[in-house]
Amino acid sequence: MPDDLNRKTVLVVDDEPEIRKLVAAMVTQFGYTVLTADSGEHALTLYRNQAPLELLITDVVAPGMSGPMLADKLTAIQPGLKVLYISGYDNTHVVQKYVVEKGHALLSKPFAVAELQNKIQQLLAEPAVRAAN
Q: Which of 31, 70, 80, 92 is deepest in the core (most CB within 10 A)?
């Protein structure tokens, strides 16, 4: 793994503790620094104390603040932040509005470790999407 990999910080947000811990363990195994949050509000607090991030991994559906709402808030603060949504739902709206239009990515649950790793590598290798004027 490249030496600079350990400097890349990934924020994993999921309200289900088991999924959050599992995804965080996978991402840590890939060599990234991982922060975890159980809600969008918690994620925003972590971001304020840790910015910048390279990647946000967030569940689409969450109580309080949805994944897309959180992504909107964080990308407004840090344009170019990469976003990977994870979801057990087939949500055409999210795919169209956030994945296609905003250049984010979606990974359907359940997923294999290799799928997550490939998606993360793909996202981080892509140039940042410029904010709309």
A: 70
